[in-house]
Amino acid sequence: MAERNYIIDFFSSFTPNDIEFNFHDFLENYLTEGCCPPEYKQSFDLEVRHLRRHEDGVISGVFAKIRKDHLPHAGRTGQQERELDLEDDEGLVEKNHFLAYRENSLLVMQANRHAGTAIALGHYLSRFAGHSVAFDPVLQPDAMQRLMRGDLHPVSVQAGFARPTNPDLYPEDDWSEALMDLLSGAGGSYVKLSINSDLRSDDDDTNRLKDAMRHAWRSIKGMPKVRSLKMDMANDDGIVYPIDLIADRLKDKVTVDVRGRYPIESDMFTSMAAAKEGLNDSLESIFGNPSANLA
Q1: Per-residue pLDDT tens for 88-115?
Q2: What DSSP string describes 59-88?
């Protein structure tokens, strides 16, 4: 049987308004139906489906994007192409497999940019959760500790990403959402952004950035086509601790049996759970410290 490699990412759910929310417990309300309410859009639909209890405290599911517009043709080199034989109410289904853990409200998610992102999942859930839902990428323990240390403050940030054009992919916080809205109307194709402070100044308004940048910069990482994302933290003595929010993200690779072109769903969930177990020491280092969890 053929195999294929898949990248999986780790996130922790939170609400920007500090409303108590646990992604696993929220999904328990939909286990009987096996799916969450769909969201219908002009060119695609979204749905969380195939919800099952994987084990105690863990729910498996699929975040599905059903493309209805601009569908590709089928064909081969040197031959005539043809339209796909779809019913009028059908589309192409792209999937992100995921596991939702009650502990730490952890989301383990298959990376598939053709389907969706954690930001898109948060926007989808926000439609019927009654409040905003978002997911923070989990960082490696040493990077998380630097980011959340109380004696450090952000002093500079740099980012490079494709110009945002889809509001559904904007991060769910006031600062970055307003910035993305501004940049979307600026034209061009690529954004390179840098914000720096003056470490020589005695004025806190100029020698450091606002503390909200800790979270806002992590939220941007969930957007598509982010090529670079870095933050420098410093203490009161001016010692700088760099963080690379792309290289320092907690992630893993799983190898899954495929049937035809697609992974076998049960094998995907089993492999994702095994990868999470293999990173338990890192996760305990992160979430064992209450100040390290932004949720």
Answers
A1: 788 889 999 999 999 999 999 999 878 8
A2: EEEEEEEEE-SSPPPB--TTS--B-----T
